[in-house]
């Protein structure tokens, strides 16, 4: 609590909003106990916690200790005179669903009026998501039929839940019908609405329908995003790399940026989502088509390999930088930093420290980066910089 005491001593504002920032920060870093101490201090000072304070604490509690402990915490808050609102109960509802306790979640949801709260569209969406993804369509439809009124009318999120779950269960045409209904209802559709359908169509190897879906997206001014690229990459898993590349070629021609920048973005997007192998497959086709990978592209590949635990492959890719240097594409500080981080994430701290020291001696990473990595991964305990 030293930070709080210093703030108060120097006359900084100590209102509920200020405390909420601290509570959230502590919760994000797994310091639930300190967060609760901060809550007590808040109440002692006569400041009334708001719905955000409670939601941060309850979310941290169910993530750290499970939803049962979060429920006990809510009971304690109420016993101390706290007055949580529906947001807090929605957090607990989310916790039950995330733990796969759907039937308990439904009972909890049905008990909300007895606690003085009418479920809103967020409450409905939380339960609906679990029912749909578990394939409990009859119950999901019954819940949907209840969603009528200002506070619980279906939202964009509702439609996206339906589309995503239907596509996941292979009910692609039904998902398309829901998308059409969404459009007719004048809801704002985005790439998020289209991506599950595209992914399933790629899984089913229905390339013509994928192209049609993408054309419709662009016609409706829905810009393809990272999720779209990863959905298209599903074709690579089906052995249809040429078809996937052809689609990316078509998308590249419709972008405002250059094809090179677009391909860099695609490779980076795939690597961030654990699709590094398809990224390599597509990179081969892209280079045959005239794309020249640069240090950013290789940095993305190295990061992807490291995230997927393929450190040796990452080291091999790192070695091809000799070819890049010959062509005038110099690896940058970000590239080297990614490599060290990848090694550290694999738990090989001694190797990470040695590589970092070598890179620093070669003056390709700054002192600032060295200090950050030492602190972040406790490398100073292994090797003296």
From TrEMBL:
Domain of life: Eukaryota
Protein name, as recorded: Pentacotripeptide-repeat region of PRORP domain-containing protein
The family this protein is said to belong to: Belongs to the PPR family. P subfamily.
Repeat is among the record's keywords: yes
UniProt-listed PROSITE patterns: PPR
Keyword Acyltransferase part of the UniProt annotation: no
Key words of the record: Repeat
First and last residues of every PPR repeat: 15-49, 50-84, 85-119, 120-154, 155-189, 190-224, 259-293, 294-331, 332-366
